[in-house]
From TrEMBL:
Pfam families: Glyco_transf_20. Pathway: Glycan metabolism; glucosylglycerol biosynthesis. Keywords: Glycosyltransferase, Transferase. This is Glucosylglycerol-phosphate synthase. GO terms for biological process: trehalose biosynthetic process.
Length: 514
């Protein structure tokens, strides 16, 4: 008796393509990410449902999904969720279960306490644990298998982010007929830092299973290429990496949709800076209800002369402490007063079971309490601190209400908050203070760029932002808006998929995206 895998291999061989090691599924375009675009949520009464407001990635990929029998593979956000695939707003959703142990070892451990701090310039010390690595390998294998089983012959699969860096190679081994893309949403560190990782070679090999590897910044792509040269000795030329075919997995004769030249296949590793759904932010900002709400927010804050805003996940990479230090000193020196200025700090709870995040919360909340206690009056608190997220319309109202937006990240792949602020300011007003360590600073050059470690410099720029004449604010914001509106998330995904599509087997079983 033949197994389904053997029949698939025989059928593929008869069709003249390379055999798959897994029976092909039905989806021609697949996105694989750690989290699904919908989350399984359980309310106070214990009732469970799928919920989620679509982020930029979903908005950009939804039309491609609809036109191309698309599916999204990911985790539903709760332990042990065994769910059959289902449709959500026209997207086929394929949940991958994670056990409580895997959440602890693969997600909180290796992804967010090893890779996250390592890839963000070791702002916090990374922990290296072999059992976390083993869990990472196992979970990556599960995601790769789910993608291999769902993908149609010659499908295009786009893997997202640092939690799944081994998936491209694992998937290629299971399904050599696929075209595989990978996008790294966070920075890729310089080799001197990356080389600390005990599994540095395995991660590079995992990524090189893709045909196209996207990074946020040119510097990230260069860092990756250097790691490839140092660890594998492969040649890189411009955006191309030459991966020798002899180095491929035994048993897989020839790789599928590859650009082959002689004895190597080429992998593209280059920057594709991500963006937001700019037009939808602007549209919301133009709505009367949001503008009224923006006005109301200012009134609720006691109509200060200046509203400053920080919006971040509560993460040590965001430089919230540096921002508070600068602001606190300006208040202490009498250069600002609580009557005139309010800082609204939205700190979205994140990864709350990871020790470094617990410590950060205590540190930030202690600082906020001290500043409010020392410099507040009965009527005015210098900081309005919000430890929760807000719906999108409330966020947009906050952006409109803010005269100065503070983005002081110590390291950030891109920082979409900076782009959201700009997209909302259809009135050409508002000043963006932006860290040069955020990827967005490569594009948003007319923001007031700062080094958040330089507290004196940051203080000067905050004062400059508060005092900037309207003409200058307008000129800067216009130029920022041009960039963000022209380079939105659809353009980002189209560019990536166009490059990736050039790797597909056109004319044979390979899928061409519509
Ligand atoms: O920036 C990387 C990222 O994974 C984003 O995709 C995500 O929004 C954020 O970090 C938070 O991630 P999570 O809550 O899934 O750990």
């Amino acid at each position: 008796m033949t197994t389904p895998e053997e029949s698939a291999a025989a059928a593929a061989a008869a069709a003249g393509s390379e055999p798959s090691l897994v029976v092909a599924g039905e989806y021609s375009f697949i996105v694989v990410s750690n989290r699904l675009p919908v989350d399984r949520v359980i309310d106070a009464e214990g009732n469970a449902s799928w919920a989620g407001s679509p982020g930029g990635l979903v908005t950009a990929l939804e039309p491609v999904m609809r036109k191309n029998e698309g599916a999204w593979i990911g985790w539903g956000g709760q332990p042990d969720l065994e769910f059959e695939p289902f449709d959500s707003d026209g997207i086929r959703v394929i949940p991958v279960p994670l056990s409580a142990d895997e959440i602890e070892n693969y997600y909180e451990g290796f992804s967010n306490d090893t890779l996250w701090p390592l890839y963000h310039d070791v702002i916090a010390p990374p922990s290296f644990h072999r059992e976390w690595w083993e869990s990472y390998v196992e979970v990556n294998q599960r995601f790769a298998r789910a993608a291999a089983e769902a993908a149609a012959e010659g499908a295009i699969v786009w893997v997202q982010d640092y939690q799944l860096q081994l998936v491209p190679k694992m998937l290629r081994e299971l399904r050599p007929d696929l075209t595989i893309g990978f996008f790294n949403h966070i920075p890729f560190p310089p080799y001197g830092i990356y080389s600390q990782l005990p599994w540095r070679a395995q991660i590079v090999e995992g990524l090189l299973g893709a045909d196209v590897i996207g990074f946020q910044r040119v510097a990230d792509a260069s860092n990756f290429q250097r790691a490839v040269r140092r660890l594998k000795g492969y040649v890189t030329k411009g955006t191309q990496v030459e991966v020798p075919l002899v180095d491929q997995t035994p048993g897989v004769r020839v790789f599928g949709p590859i650009k082959r030249q002689g004895n190597f296949r080429t992998v593209i590793a280059r920057a594709f800076p991500i963006s937001i759904d700019s037009a939808s932010f602007e549209e919301l900002a133009r709505s009367a209800s949001v503008q009224e709400r923006a006005q109301q927010i200012r009134e609720e804050l006691g109509n200060p002369k200046t509203v400053m805003l920080g919006v971040d996940r509560l993460d040590y990479t965001k430089g919230i402490g540096h921002r508070l230090k600068a602001y606190g000193e300006l208040l202490a020196e009498g250069k600002l007063s609580a009557e005139d200025v309010t800082l609204v700090q939205v700190a979205n709870p994140s990864r709350e079971r990871v020790q470094a995040y617990m410590e950060l919360r205590d540190e930030i909340e202690l600082t906020v309490g001290r500043i409010n206690g020392d410099y507040g009056t009965i009527a005015h608190s210098p900081i309005s601190y919000q430890h929760h997220g807000f719906p999108r319309d409330e966020m947009v109202a906050l952006y409109l209400a803010a005269d100065v937006m503070l983005v002081t990240a110590l390291r950030d792949g891109m920082n979409l908050v900076a782009k959201e602020y700009v997209a909302c300011r259809f009135d050409d007003d508002g000043v963006l203070v932006l860290s040069e360590f955020a990827g967005a600073s490569d594009e948003l050059k007319r923001a007031l760029l700062i080094n958040p470690h330089d507290i004196e410099g940051l203080k000067e720029v905050i004062l400059q932002a508060i005092g900037m004449p309207k003409r200058d604010r307008r000129a800067r914001m216009r130029s920022l808006r041009k960039r963000v509106l022209e380079h939105d998330v659809s353009r980002w995904s189209n560019e990536f998929l166009q490059v990736l599509g050039s790797y597909a087997h056109h004319g044979s079983a390979g899928h061409e995206l519509r």
